[in-house]
Write a structure and sequence with these properties.
With 245 residues, the protein is mainly alpha-helical. The protein is 78% helix and 0% strand.
Amino acid sequence: MINGRARAFLRLLTVQGAWSFERMTGVGIGYAAEPLLEDLKSADPGRHAEAAVRSAEYFNSHPYLAGLALGALVRAEYDFVPGPQVARLRAALCSPLGALGDQLFWIGLVPAMMAMAIVGVVAGLGLWSLIAVVAVYNVVRLWTGMWALNTGLATGTRVGAAIGASWLPVAAGRAGLAAGGLIGLALPLSADWLLDGGSSRGVMLAVLTILGGLGLGWRLGPRITSVRFGLMAIGLAATLAWGLG
């Protein structure tokens, strides 16, 4: 039989299925919270009723990190934290979880995986490259979701400090630069593969582009995202190709 934590995790995978303008992903969070709140029903039926209502109120964050909020809020209910404080915790988690998730996944991991797929195709791996990229992405996504739920349940109202001390802020801050580096590698290789069938010049362009881009990224810091890095890589590769032509 699947326990409450596993059921909550599976429901978190569909947290956006009940998305609405009024509550965003709030109803989805409430649906995922229900298996975790079952024990509270027998311990304190009144608190359970209040917690069930609170769990479905407005909430909006990155869906992959929503487990941090879900776990923390459920733990707060079992710790009998006053309702207004639980509501404030819920509101306070929206923006940071949204920003960290966007940086880690949309700005970092997604473009990085796309770049790796391109490099794999150029290297002759074909469909296996795409299969490997999809598999790696989903492993990271599922592991992150489980880590988020477990961390939230373990820390409750101390979830903010737990996030700050975890791997998440560091990974989110570096993900964009790493993705940009991979894009800088993939663009010249793929362009040379399409235009010239692949050559040593394409590899040299890729190496020079990624080194130049990483140098600028180190110099400019967070102002360089994967998108800006990719555009910069196109410019560097085009300049170098013209100069070497």
